[in-house]
Design a protein that fits this description.
Number of strands: 14
Structural class: mainly beta
Largest sheet: 5 strands, mixed
CATH architecture of the largest domain: Beta Complex
Strand order of the largest sheet: 8-9-13-14-12
CATH superfamily of the largest domain: TonB-dependent receptor, plug domain
Length: 232
């Protein structure tokens, strides 16, 4: 009788443990000055399944990777002007993982001559939307639109590739501000079809105006392609 009771407990508990999901958090700083680093790329990769999760640090340097299944992972940090940092053997067990401060070293280059060139910020915040200037991102140039958005604030990419904006999954995709055949494939499939190398910028529209109609209720993603490039 006791053995049957113990077996029943294991049958009930094991599924909950297997599907448990946790949060990984931390704060990214400048290793030399202890200043916080906003908008740093954070990429978590499973060592067994190649599943990836991504986000970007907030203005105060804090990042949160949510809904991470139990397992063993590799964690990578990158931001323009700093050396890339990788932490191996990140083990997610049945509790939230707090990594504390993660320091990145600034890169130093000696130049004989230099020019001062003004560049747009990687992420710009405008009324009702966030703009990601993809053309400045060399890290994700070989990926797709969905990999870029996995690190964008307000956007969440699920384990199965589902796309949501601020928790709303009814997301509509535009190309250069217009509906295309890709718009009706669903956000996840449409974004996987667009290579990052062809994108100038991405607009994450969190507050779509009335001109977009009912399609904009859950939020919209507008892909602006580089000039002289067309989707096949």
């Amino acid at each position: 009788m006791v053995q049957r009771f113990l077996i029943l407990i294991f049958i009930v508990i094991i599924p909950f443990v297997g599907f448990s999901q946790q949060t990984i958090s931390g704060k990214i700083i400048n290793e030399k000055s202890d200043e916080t680093l906003p908008f740093a790329n954070v990429l978590l990769t499973s060592t067994k399944t190649d599943t990836t999760f991504g986000t970007a640090s907030e203005i105060n340097g804090v990042f949160n990777l949510k809904k991470i299944p139990l397992g063993n992972y590799k964690l990578e940090f990158s931001v323009i002007g700093y050396e890339r940092k990788t932490i191996e053997n990140i083990i997610v067990i049945n509790e939230n993982l707090k990594l504390g401060k993660i320091g990145l070293n600034p890169t130093a280059h000696k130049l004989d001559e230099f020019q001062i060139v003004a560049e747009k910020s990687y992420i710009e915040t405008k009324p009702g939307k966030k703009v990601i200037n993809v053309s400045n991102d060399l890290v994700n140039s070989g990926g797709s639109a969905i990999e870029i958005l996995s690190m964008a604030p307000s956007v969440e990419i699920g384990v199965g590739g589902e796309v949501s904006i601020r928790g709303e999954s009814d997301v509509f995709v535009l190309i250069n501000g217009r509906e295309t055949a890709l718009s009706f494939l669903g956000a996840a499939q449409a974004l996987k079809q667009i290579p990052a190398s062809s994108i100038e910028k991405i607009e994450v529209i969190t507050n779509a105006g009335a001109e977009y109609g009912p399609d904009g209720e859950g939020g919209m993603i507008n892909i602006i392609l580089k000039k002289k490039l067309k989707m096949g």
